[in-house]
Design goal:
Order of helices and strands: HEEEEEEEEEEHEH
Number of helices: 3
Oligomer: single chain
CATH class: Mainly Beta
CATH topology: Cathepsin D, subunit A, domain 1
Helix content: 10-25%
Number of strands: 11
Structural class: alpha+beta
CATH architecture: Beta Barrel
Number of domains: 1
Strand order of the largest sheet: 2-3-10-4-9-8
Radius of gyration: 17 Å
Strand content: 35-45%
Distance between the termini: 56 Å
Length: 164
């Protein structure tokens, strides 16, 4: 028999949600829920490691969620790791702990810093953040339907062009 006591403590999360970064004033950021990803990822720019540590900003200057807040972490509060993307390509990324607000829950979680400028969602929430906190119901959430449909339509045009 399965113990359902844990399920009573879990919040339901949709396939995409709006989140807040508590280490920045960025609020209402669209985040894709990805149970296939171990680690969460956030779009970061101006990533600089020097003698003092690591500094970066979330998003990019022309992005609507960019605040310009520089987040600085001393040595020992970040690391580098090799991440495999969805295509199996491996790249080195910085990994940091950030505080976020997800569905009313304050969470400290690990994020890799990535260039997500070509992605619909500037943030991806992976299993480490979701585990023991959320159950995913893909029929709910706050997905960016228009952006998803636009990207799908563009892909269809490209596929037809390749077939011609």
């Amino acid at each position: 028999m399965q113990d359902n006591s844990l399920h009573k403590e879990l919040s339901i999360i949709g396939r995409a949600e709006r989140i807040d970064f508590l280490d920045d004033s960025a609020r209402g950021i669209p985040a894709k829920i990805d149970t296939g990803a171990d680690l969460s990822s956030v779009w970061a720019t101006n990533i600089i490691e020097n003698m003092d540590g690591l500094s970066f900003t979330l998003f990019a200057p022309k992005n609507e969620y960019y605040t310009g807040t520089v987040i600085s972490l001393p040595h020992g509060k970040f690391k580098r790791t090799r991440i495999a993307n969805s295509f199996g390509e491996k790249e080195m990324r910085y990994v940091v702990v950030l505080r976020v607000l997800v569905k009313g829950r304050r969470i400290k979680s690990t994020f890799s810093l990535a260039n997500r400028s070509s992605k619909i969602y500037p943030v991806l929430l992976g299993r480490r953040l979701l585990n023991r906190k959320f159950l995913v119901d893909v029929s709910t959430g706050q997905p960016l339907i228009d952006a998803e449909q636009k990207k799908h339509a563009k892909l269809q045009v490209e596929l037809k062009r390749q077939q011609a």
